[in-house]
Amino acid sequence: MGTYGIGGRTAPDRPLNTEAVTALKLGFSLGMRFVDTAEMYGAGHSEELVGQAVRGSHSEMFVATKVSPEHFDYEGVLRAADRSLKRLGIKCIDLYQLHWPSSSIPIRETMRAMERLQSEGKIRHVGVSNFSVEQIVEAQKALSKGQVVSNQVEYNLISRGIERDLLGYCERSKITVIAYTPLGRGRFSEP
Ligand SMILES: NC(=O)c1ccc[n+]([C@@H]2O[C@H](COP(=O)([O-])OP(=O)(O)OC[C@H]3O[C@@H](n4cnc5c(N)ncnc54)[C@H](OP(=O)(O)O)[C@@H]3O)[C@@H](O)[C@H]2O)c1
Predict the structure, then answer these.
(1) Is there a contact between 175 and 148 (Cβ–Cβ < 8 Å)?
(2) pLDDT bracket for residue 62 (50, 70, 90)
(3) For ligand 1, is residue 187 a contact (CB within 6 Å)?
(4) Which of 6, 63, 125, 181 could share a disulfide with 20, CB 3.0–4.6 Å?
């Protein structure tokens, strides 16, 4: 269940809070177990609403969120994770993803912080998003142990670029591909 737009896109939007939490809970009651958010969505408000929806039932859910590239320095990652944990109201993020690659901060520094979060039990799995094959290889090399478990990328009936090389690479490397914009933001239903 994607939550971009729940609680605002780039800034908090609160009038539909109750509907947003009700919609998330309905999804959970219908069997959805994977919820994806990001510190960027609604400038943190999406995480707050996901937190309200999973309160008391996190053990049955899989909560994924993302850290933004402006926080990819070592201390920045640690602080961003603490803020996300607080907003989500959980003790451990199931999947913590690098939202997109950074051109300025070395991946080694970012991954050092991700490993520390993992050793402290604040995150379970390390994932990435919008990474190419080469960028995943670099990210994997930057980890001293463990694995990059997922790459979240655009994939739908129109946007099929990942079928060129990324999808095959991820399959062979046992990296889960999480498709975003799966409904093409409604473009498939246009006449
Ligand atoms: N990692 C990343 O960089 C990244 C980037 C984008 C998305 N994501 C994740 O992927 C999730 C889903 O992606 P998404 O929200 O971009 O795309 P999506 O799921 O393909 O589309 C969602 C939006 O499309 C519209 N829509 C869907 N079906 C429709 C239909 N039958 N008729 C008319 N409109 C329809 C709705 O717009 P209205 O709300 O206007 O009704 C809906 O909110 C996000 O919530 C987020 O968690 C990640």
Answers:
(1) yes
(2) very high
(3) no
(4) 6
Query: How far does CA 103 lie from the centroid of its chain?
Result: 19
Task: Indicate the residue type of 134.
Answer: E
Residue 189: what pLDDT?
A: 83
CB within 8 Å of 38: residues ≥ 6 apart: 4, 46, 47, 65, 66, 68, 97, 99
pTM of the model: 0.95
Q: Kindly state if the Cβ of 27 falls inside 6 Å of ligand 1.
A: no
Calculate how far, in angstroms, residue 114's C-alpha sits from the geometric centre of ligand 1.
28
What does the pLDDT read at residue 58? 87
Residue with tokens 């999947």: 95
What pLDDT sits at residue 5? 87
C-alpha closest to that of 173 among 152, 147, 191, 153: 147
DSSP conformational letter for 73? S
- Residue of 127, 23, 25, 39 lying closest to 83 (CA atoms): 39
Using the predicted structure, report yes or no on whether residue 191 has a pLDDT greater than 80: no
CA dihedral 99, 150, 103, 66 (to 10 degrees): 20
39 lines ligand 1 (CB under 6 A): no
What does pLDDT average to over the chain?
96
Token pair recorded at residue 115: 């490993």
